[in-house]
Structures are given as C-alpha cells and as structure tokens.
Amino acid sequence: MFVLVTPIVKQCNQVSIGQAQPRVVRQLPILYSYPGCPFSVRASMALNAVKIEYIHEKEDFFNRSLAMKAISSTFPVLLFPDDTVMNESLDIMKWAFENDRQGNINYPQSMIEPMDNLIAKYDTKFKLALKAYKYPEAVGKKASKQGREYGMECLADLDKSLSKHKFLFPDNGRHGSDERPSYADLAIFPFVWQFAHVDEEWFESGASLKLREWHQYFSSKQTERTKNQGKGIIPLPILRQILCHKSPID
Known about the structure:
Number of strands: 4
Helix content: 40-55%
Structural class: mainly alpha
Largest sheet: 4 strands, mixed
Distance between the termini: 31 Å
Oligomer: single chain
CATH architecture of the domain at 109-226: Up-down Bundle
Strand order of the largest sheet: 2-1-3-4
Shape: globular
Order of helices and strands: EHEHEEHHHHHHHH
Number of helices: 10
C-alpha cells in the first residue's frame, strides 16, 4: 500500500516546448539519503518510527542527483514543502520526535541532554574506532585491532544500561509495561550495526546476550522495512512520472 501522496501537485498541465514548466507543489517532505551512511539510516528510522509520511530518495554516493546537490553536499538532507532544508541527522530526528503525536519514541525533555552526551561519544570516538576496524588495509592490522577493542569497550557501556531495561534509557512507566525505544537507541544503532557486520561471527561470540538482543530488535525492523520498500514510500522518480504525466488540456 502506497503512502498517501495526493494532492501533492496542484497543477500539472501539458506544456509546449519553450513554455515555462509548471511548478510542482509538494505537501510531503523529501528525504535524500545514502543507504550505506549511518547518519542517513538513523534519520529514516526516526521518520518511520513516528510514522511521518515523506518521499524517500535514495542517492548514489558517487552520482548524486542534481536536486540533492542543489541543497546539500552531505547526507542526509530533508527538504520541506516550503523549501526549508535540514541537513543534520540529529536535527531531523529531533524534529520527527517533536511531532510524535502517538508517543512511539521515548523522548522526554529531561533526558535529552544525557542522550545527546551518549550519542556524541558514538558520533566521534566510536565512529573513528569503527573506521579503523572496518578498513585494516588503510590503517594496518594493529590499528584495526585496537579499533575493534575500543569499540567493544564502548559497547560494554551500553550493556550496563541494557542490563537494567530493554532499551538504553528507561521508559519510566509512561507506556505501562510496553517499553519504547529512545531517541538514543535509534541514533546509535546504525553505528553498532556496522560494527557488528564487520565480523558477525566474532560479534555474536563476544557481545553479551542483552546487546545481541538489542541489536537483533532493530536489525529485524530494518530488514522488514527493506523488504517492504516500494510498498510504503513511492520512490521519487516514479512519483514524478505519475504526477506529471501529460494529458490533453480540457
């Protein structure tokens, strides 16, 4: 089932060569992302988690569309209908959670600062360790091993939280016995996912049960979403063809 996209275009008349193209008026934001980028993944996870309708355009890292190049040089970028641009993944996440009317995500104002502090560690130190671990041919085997060891030290900190509750921050009973993922969970998971998939067998044998369960919870959601691509979000090139199909003027 497609996401409801009408009425996105108010007018799409047939035009002749030399005439100005009709202006396309959108009512949904467009997310430009690169699937291999953890910053892109967490932005799309946030939008999906709170069920915000949007158009998802997945970019080729080495062949980015002109539309994306015109508004940003980095991934991800969210283009709003009024042409406002948001090109920081955490800003996109926070905007999404502030519009979470159903309370799908654990995002209490009192916990944003400690969540931001934890996320900052993974956006900096853990990310550098991950790069070293992923690319031994670039940094050398010794540095790669050190990256893996430091990465596991960081994950041990997550274990401390996960030993107390299902997700990284307590839900404090706001949703009864049904715990909700926090802003920090969605922001950090894409980096842990990449770390785990460098050597899945090693990760499965070295990570704690709680960490593996946490990793599997979000991995399964991403896998399910990948299988359903095209059912929930209409890819932008197809959307353009649908909306601007030329027909005789009445």
